[in-house]
Amino acid sequence: MAGLTKNNKRTPQTTIIKVGTNEAGKLPPQAQELEDSVLGALMIEKDAYGSVADLLRPEVFYKDQNRLVYEAIRELAAKDQPVDMLSVGEKLRSLGTLEKAGGAVYLADLTRRVASTAHLRYHAEIIAKKATARDVIALAAQIEEMGFDETQDVDELMQTAEAGIFEISQRSQKRDVTQIDPVIEEAFKRMEKAAMNTGSISGIPSGFHALDKITSGWQSPDLVIIAARPAMGKTAFVLSMAKHMAIDREIPTAIFSLEMSNVQLVNRLIMNVCELEGDKIKTGKMSKEDSKRLNTKINIMKGKPLYLDDTPSLSIFELRSKARKLVREHKVQIIIIDYLQLMNAQGSSFGSREQEVSIISRGLKGLAKELDIPIIALSQLNRGVEARQGVEGKTPQLADLRESGAIEQDADMVCFIHRPEYYHLYNDDKTGKDLRGLAQIIVAKHRNGATDSIWLRFRGKYAKFQNEDDAVDPDEQNSVMPMADSTNSVSIQSSMNAMGEDISQYNL
Question: Which residues are catalytic?
Answer without folding.
Answer: 259
